[in-house]
Every structure is written in structure tokens, then in C-alpha cells.
Amino acid sequence: MYIKNILFSLFVFSITIGISQDNNAWLIDYEEVYEESIKQDKPIMVNFTGSDWCGWCKKLKKAVFDTETFQNWAAENVILFELDYPRRTPQDPAIKEQNRQLQQTFRSVVRGYPTILIFDIERDYDGDQKKADGIKIHGKMSYMGDPDSFINVAKNHISNRQK
User: CATH number, domain at 65?
Assistant: First the structure.
């Protein structure tokens, strides 16, 4: 009986992890985000967050990002990119450095958390070598208490996008 309980608990735990990973469509690697944006011809929605310390970030995640309404809309319309700046939660050193550099890139636009930007990356090449990335921002958002309001504002920003 004891072994059955342990096996059942492990089974439930593994399914829970699988489901939570499947629902987490937020990418964290800049190059992967760029490639997906180009491949799918979608703008990028970046969430500047302090996941383990920012109260408004936690509220936004619960009120909007964790909802089925938002997740379904996002899957069809944007590439989700999370730039997290935790204080206590360990973070991969390469991601931490990438996020620090992107924080500097967006410092004139991002003044607090949460900040959500919708943008495209315009990459320039010199022959086969990447020369520079330009960022074309379509809109800026912050906390909103429900997914419908958030989506309506995001749609308005995306409508400004010209390819």
C-alpha cells in the first residue's frame, strides 16, 4: 500500500510538472524569441517582471497571464518573452546577463515593473555577420486587472505594426 501511494504521488507530480511546462509559453532566450518572431511573423510581447518580489507583477500574472483567455489569444497573436529580474530566485547566469543587457537597452522605456512592451526586432547584417538589432516598439502597457482589457489594449498596439 505504501509503495502504491508513493508511485501515485510521483505520477501526479510528474503530470503536474508536464502540464505547467506545457502552459508556460513564455520564452526567456532573446535569440529564440527573435527566430520565432521571424518564423511566425508575429510581434514580441515582453514582460519585464520581478517574479519573486514585485507585487503588481504577481497580480498581473494571476489576473491576466495565467488565464485561458489570455493564453489562447497570445498563442495566435504574439511571441511571449519574459525578462525576469528576481532578487531571491536563482537564475541561469547566461539568462541573468542577457536580461541585464536588455534592461540597459530598454532603460529609456522601462521605468518600473511590470512593464509590457510589444515590439519587433529589426536585424541588420553586414554580409553574413549580424551587425545590429533595432527595436521597433509598437506599444507599452502595465498592470490591468482583467484579460479582456489587456487584450484590447494589446490589439490596439499590434494594429500599429507595419511590416
Answer: 3.40.30.10
